[in-house]
Amino acid sequence: MTGPLVDAGSVPAWLRPLVEISGEVDSRTFTRFSPPNGEYTRSASVLILFGEGPRGPDVLLLRRADTLGSHAGQVAFPGGGAEDGEDPVATALREAEEETGVDPAGVRPVAVLPELFVPVSRFAVTPVLAHWQTPSPVHAVDPGETAAVARVAVRDLADPANRFQVRRQGYVGPAFAVDGLFVWGFTAGLLSVLLSLGGWEREWNRGDVRDLEAALREHDWETR
């Protein structure tokens, strides 16, 4: 089931557009990839946790450890594979607590987005939108999994100076360089769509397309 989990009128005005539209979008809003027919995928969830900090609305991101077998060193939302009997919301909250130490008691899940297929890891990922009603301290709980945790202001993600696109083997997609983080791939794609749906997007230069490998080298101190 996708769509709002709460009355949109009960969330802050800046988050309301995302809650309202969550029941109207499908996977094609976010990705061009669909699971191959008959091929195995594993269920997973990510927590897209929006709070409000000194610089206005922000979102919780982490940088994955370099030693991980997949997506090593990449910036991501907290999340991971589902355990037996878990629904997407339970998975997202559990993984976020395990990876960042966030206290689930202060987190209010507000909407579930459509399941998205990630070809590289063969995960079928359900994004869960949440409002951080009572923020708690966060940190990299297990350095073997998480290298860093950060609350990134939405206004900085929307800043045209922090946005560009990257190209790799025919793939062209959005990227962000903000707060010492280089964000690309699945996470950047989701953030880019959410900025648009939430009414936060500002005009930016989509013609600024950079080679991904060169961008990774440029931000090496931030991603290794």
UniProtKB/TrEMBL annotation:
InterPro entries: CoAse (IPR045121), NUDIX_hydrolase-like_dom_sf (IPR015797), NUDIX_hydrolase_CS (IPR020084), NUDIX_hydrolase_dom (IPR000086). CDD domains: NUDIX_CoAse_Nudt7 (cd03426). Its cofactor is Mg(2+); Mn(2+). Residues 39-174 form the Nudix hydrolase domain. The chain crosses the membrane at residues 181-200. One of its GO terms (molecular function) is metal ion binding. It holds the Pfam family NUDIX. Keywords: Hydrolase, Magnesium, Manganese, Membrane, Metal-binding, Transmembrane, Transmembrane helix. This is ADP-ribose pyrophosphatase YjhB, NUDIX family. It comes from Amycolatopsis sacchari. The lineage of its organism: Bacteria, Bacillati, Actinomycetota, Actinomycetes, Pseudonocardiales.
